[in-house]
């Protein structure tokens, strides 16, 4: 008896200053790589970044507006989203949210506010008022906090404006305190935007928006030692470019980064022993201005959100070589964040 694979849900965060109305859902066929059945599941303003709770019972979405908000949604049995509550982020243009593995804390990065806000998560998935706020601005330099991620008891923050990746740790009262305002020296005006850590926490890879590079570093106590900076661009490309997102393959043998301008995905082969990278491909995203991208749960497909061309592109992933090949695309208004 042949069992047909069930399609899985893909949730899409968008900008709503055009035709979009909020968070959308698509069905993804993990055998064919085809997206279908587009529907609006939550009407909300500028949900430009969304993330799951670890058990996928809840979705947390920023509201990237001047006043800034973060909302909690419950996944209903029919896969629609029910709003639980909304809190202020105490900073303008929140652009990223992540949740810790225990589902007890959420952190929001405020791009215009230049700060991060931490929230306690209640048992029903609702968010408390902000429990802690860390402001990276000073009288000399404007902060643009762009992403933050928990790793065990640590919290890493990429600050594009301060050209730095901060590290916070927990104190005895379970509050976060600053451990380092720079874990690695970046090139001047690199603009760290997003980053990814290996599962063991021994390596970090930072994608730099302004420099169009990936910085690779290896853990050394509470700091990291630089491995190298790697260009994300083809050597022949001479136009403007702004890097966006970065992800490791599940086996951590390959690393991917998105280029807005060159409009490509840069593919790197990763040495799992020493953490070094070798660029093996730059492939067109078949769209304009790729923001967030994601690997599907099987690892056999990559999906790319092309904001300006209003489409999601689907690629086959050769799991042996890491290389991508274009498969198809689907139209959707202003996609910027993809979540399986």
Describe this structure in words.
This protein is mostly beta strands. The chain is built from no helices and 28 strands. A hairpin with a 4-residue loop joins strand 13 (154-159) and strand 14. It starts with 7 loop residues before the first strand and ends with a strand. The mean pLDDT is 97. Pfam families: Lactonase (PF10282).
Please give a quick description of this structure.
With 340 residues, the chain is mainly beta. The chain has strands spanning 8-14, 22-28, 35-43, 50-52, 58-63, 69-75, 81-88, 94-99, 105-110, 115-121, 127-135, 145-151, 154-159, 164-170, 176-180, 192-197, 203-208, 213-220, 223-231, 242-248, 254-260, 264-270, 277-284, 290-295, 301-306, 311-317, 324-331, 335-339.
Topology of this protein?
Elements: E1 8-14, E2 22-28, E3 35-43, E4 50-52, E5 58-63, E6 69-75, E7 81-88, E8 94-99, E9 105-110, E10 115-121, E11 127-135, E12 145-151, E13 154-159, E14 164-170, E15 176-180, E16 192-197, E17 203-208, E18 213-220, E19 223-231, E20 242-248, E21 254-260, E22 264-270, E23 277-284, E24 290-295, E25 301-306, E26 311-317, E27 324-331, E28 335-339
Antiparallel strand pairs: 1-2, 1-28, 2-3, 4-5, 5-6, 6-7, 8-9, 9-10, 10-11, 12-13, 13-14, 14-15, 16-17, 17-18, 18-19, 20-21, 21-22, 22-23, 24-25, 25-26, 26-27
